[in-house]
């Protein structure tokens, strides 16, 4: 059983091929902003590090509701947009 799990994790260790910065706000940029605030590249890295299958989202908006940082403290997010226009250019969009 153990080797099976480590084999799956090795495959899941995906590195991005490239990165660019977001130019305009979108739902995806909003969620990336939330992952990056919590110290992760994106959902792929979060799931690798925290070994979770699903990320808690607000059903109304689809935005991320709660993330666990690497030091195990939690970030809680609002239903509404949190990434302001002035912060959009800070968001890194990774391509796999």
TrEMBL record:
InterPro entries: Meiosis-expressed_gene_1. It holds the Pfam family Meiosis_expr. Transmembrane segments: none annotated. GO terms for cellular component: nucleus. Essential for spermiogenesis. Belongs to the MEIG1 family. This is MEIG1 protein. It comes from Serilophus lunatus. The lineage of its organism: Eukaryota, Metazoa, Chordata, Craniata, Vertebrata. The gene is Meig1.
